[in-house]
Amino acid sequence: MLQIPPLVKNVFDSFPLRKYGPVLNSSDQSNEDCICFGQASPNAENQFILAVNQTFEYSINDKVVLLPVDPHALACTLILCHKNKLTLPRKCIKNKDAKSANSMIKVNYHASPDKMLPMLVENNIKLQTREVRSSESIKRLIQSDNSFENDPIAKLINQMLDTELYDLWILCLLTELLPNHDNEKLRRLFYLDDSPLSNDYTAKLITRSIYNVIPCWNNFQVRYSELFHESLGDKFSWKELSELLNVESPFSRELRTSFSGLYSELLANFKRKIPLIYKYTSSQELTKSKSIVALKFYSFVIIVDQFAAGTNLSKSLEGPIRETLIKDAYEAIQKYA
Prior knowledge:
single chain; 2 domains; 6-stranded mixed sheet; 14 helices; globular; Piso0_005024 protein
């Protein structure tokens, strides 16, 4: 009888054969846990899929909806509901739900060519065409499609929301929310496979990968190029990688100091501007462009309230208007439930 070579035997002893059950039909499997927008009369000709980083559950009048964890993605969700007369996405069975022509999916940021989310996939069933819009393309579309040229104040505030406020969210992630290697927090903020996070070494690799990609969001690294004297690439020798994984942050002390300085500067500007933005968005007469600005601003407030408690960004909302601001933000999304 032939003897099994020791090397092969060791491999099979370490990884014994297992019997696996049949693989379910992929179409049935993907429909069991779908996230669908609701609407009264689905448009069979045009459909869209919004790809987001991660979602969280929020209860409105005993209805559990799923909202993105990113300010820009939440704003896109609300604007899509506002413009298309949709209700906020909920779990559904796609093939069995007549109101599920439009949907939301959770994807890893690596699914996007520019590592930025959300992405919007628009399908025209009649013409058999599909268009994929990047995060930047979505912002340009919103600005061009909502009469901002006729309202210079709305245009100015919209630009500030797209740049300064989102930059604050990026800096909050880099300086306060992510540095402590909290895997549970990573799962809440990013769509990740649980298996790599169960190992300390691979969890650190994932954290570093996230650190590297966040400065690319919203053209942050381009806008503040003077801060980035060091490379943020992913190519390292094993020795360099081992050394990097043993430090709290993959960025140099100089860059972390620069982040903190910029964060403090933008926070100070934000504190001065909050009352003005709130006064503008809460006025009774809501024009087309003002409605969009209000949804963007309230999206930012909700995400900060949900995920940035105790941070300097959350503290910047403190003041006489905090309670009414947060109340108005949540009330603004209730109409889409």
